[in-house]
Amino acid sequence: MTKKVFVFFPDGVGLRNFAFTDFKITGEQMGFDITYWNNTIFSLKDNLGFKEVKIEDHTAHKLLPIYSRARKRAELNISRDRFNDAVYSTYKFPFRYNSLKNTFKTLYTKCLIGLYSSEDGIVKLRNKINALERSTSKYKYCKAQLEKHTPDLIFCTTQRATQSISALLASKDLGIPTVAFVYSWDNVPKAMQVVDTDYYFVWSDLMKAEMLKYYPFVKENQVIVTGTPQFEPHFNDNLKQSRSVFFKEYNLDENKTYICYSGDDQTTSPLDQYYLADLANAVRSLNTKGDNLGVIYRKCPVDFTKRYDAVLEANKDIIAVIDPIWKPVGDQWNQVLPAKEDFKLLYNICEHSEFVTNVCSSTIFDFVAHNKPCIYYNYEQPQLKKGIRDIGQNYNYVHFRSMPSKEAAVFCTDKNQLETIIKNILDGKTSNVSEGLRWFEIVAGKEPMKASKRIWEAIDDLLNNKF
């Protein structure tokens, strides 16, 4: 009997993993009837020819943002106190008092945090959020869709979207099993689990241990290690272009050796443009000493600021701009969606660059999958002043504690050392690839190329009551 699965997109962040990889093909080859339950403005039917059920009612309870923020802060407070670790406070975004409305929201949120910052309080707060979302028209709308289409299981592609709460509650209330995929390697310690589902799929044993550590109400058998489809394309040699073809397509100089600079979002690295300038200066200096180097700049897909423009203009003889193939389909950050072609582009940037440099990005794993090193910048810029976030705090985050050693990345802690580090990598004297691959395995599991298959196998086991 064919098993009918709804793959649920509450927002666009899951498209890259679950629409543009071989995830759907793998599931169909295993006999699943797959329908995309689509809460985004991106039409999977029109753009990809996928079977979809569109969610047209996007109503959320007006108090949901306040209660969700209170839940996150309360959970972070509990982690801070339970583990005696100040890092959890750094995950909090500042409150806003810049208008009467925002001041009221802040005071209301603080009141909730005071009431619910305990283990029992978190459960009550989550139950309150669920009660609010069950009262919405979207809950009734989604429940009617499910009663009409009768899927056997709902697979939610991210655990962190508040837009998914009412839909998943409708699923659970109808007795339909629900699964949430934990979207990113840093999400669990940051209190970004907004949904309560029957099961959770995670990347690795590390993430499973984190789920059980931070959420005592989640049982061991509810957390299943599957891997993530995010890295599967790096193991698909059909995506590889020859150096000459790739260089010709993107107007690169075949006589040059290229280094990739992977840009960060403004929140993570507000002075990111100055690290790009430092790289350009180091490359320019090395070129005067006999090297012939260039830089490929790949921006963060959701960064539309002009902050890099002056650096790019001043170094256009050195820096080649190759934008990721992502397309805005709305005015929110999570409505900037990837095109399938970007997998091929990223594969070949990794393949044809000598190494990557960035501020604490997970692109380190994309590059070590191609046996290429990574430099992490970890020094302050002179432009740093009060009110600007220091990038150094990023490396104190919990997910960086998963590094097997400090050699898992090449850290540049002094701008004056950058040129020497670059030269040593190019000459084969410095590399993080061996330790970086160990870190990759810790974070993403032992066989990242088989994640889609393992997700479908886990779904099959759930439907056959093997868990």
TrEMBL record:
Origin: domain of life: Bacteria
Keywords from the UniProt entry: Transferase
Family annotation (Pfam families): Glyphos_transf
InterPro entries hit by this protein: Glycerophosphate_synth (IPR007554), TagF_C (IPR043148)
A GO term, aspect molecular function: CDP-glycerol glycerophosphotransferase activity
Entry's Gene Ontology cellular component terms: membrane
Protein name: UDP-glycosyltransferase
